[in-house]
Amino acid sequence: MSGASWVLVLNSGSSSVKYQLLDMATERRLAAGIVERIGEEGGAGDHAEALRRAATDLKERGFGLDSPELAAVGHRVVHGGTRFTRPTLVTDEVLAGIEDLVPLAPLHNPANVTGIKVARELRPDLPQVAVFDTAFHATIPEAAARYAIDTEVADRFGIRRYGFHGTSHAYVSRATAALLGREPADVNVIVLHLGNGASASAVRGGVCVDTSMGLTPLEGLVMGTRSGDVDPAVIFHLERVGGMGTDEIDTLLNKRSGLLGLCGANDMREIGRRMGEGDAAAQTAFEVYVHRLRRYVGAFTAVLGRVDAVAFTAGVGENSAAVRAAAMADLEGLGMVVDPVRNAVRSSAARLVSPDGSRVAVAVVPTDEELEIARDTYALAR
Ligand code: ADP
Questions:
Q1: What local confidence, expressed as pLDDT, does residue 1 receive?
Q2: CA-angle at 115, arms to 114 and 120, nearest 5°
Q3: Which residues are noted in the entry as Mg(2+)-binding (predicted)?
């Protein structure tokens, strides 16, 4: 495979498969697509069929997966537990290890496992690489990773803070250093990944030292449909007083909470529109979202001690000037200032939104999880 330089990146979710083909000789994106509604009417029957559809689509665009140019397949895997802390070449044993982690990520890891199995059948000759969403957070010190519960119980059930969106936090923290013209080892960055899912991380000198998501991607920031932090007693209360079952509460907190639960919409664009029309629920949702974000900015400022940059990324972070302005308002005391003119600029490039000479650089840094996965995959496959 000396000359082969294509990498196929697969992100197999519970009901969709996103795919991208990149040429790593140039890091150029050759093709990208998504197969949605797996298992639903009008969608693909299962993950195997979804992947075949992806392969057909790529073939029609001139990028057959039977090509000798294809060097490897990179898979996004959500949960690596404590066992997988770096990109890993898939073997039968590794696959079994990812399956062992299903109880920690029941919605995600099974789809990831299926994606790997199908891709292996498609091209058994190729290296398959698993890139874990948790891996970048493996460096978080014990003080931040441990929950203050009975150690014996916690260890028996693997309960600790793992963190997620790791490929994004890794990519964005490095890209932020590059934007500042400095080495990752020399800068401390707070990364705010604000998409449908949302998480914050504190990165000291290129090494992650804290993150807002925990055992699962439910903890931390207010998200599109997830509550983020709640008092755990809310759950007992819903059980004892509300008569709700475990699965019902799981659905409530993961799918019917966050922005959606607060105002009936989970898209920040719609919330902005409704706020413009004087919708009080939308206003409250925005304020709860921003308040939580500011708490984490403050907390991670204390964790890092010195902050060189705050980086906004993902759908909301890259596009919502209103969220960025509100999140950074009145934080001059922390050295964080947003220039309204710079903040209003729409661009797909990494850029500063703080005034020149600010103590802390406030930046918008578009994430690229697929490129990060492709880089990890290519490096390992070679
Ligand atoms: P995912 O977590 O699914 O990858 P994204 O990072 O693509 O999500 O973020 C999706 C979210 O980004 C949308 O739900 C929406 O709230 C937000 N978003 C996208 N475009 C804009 C925009 N122009 N203004 C405000 N919010 C936006």
A1: 44
A2: 100
A3: 11, 369
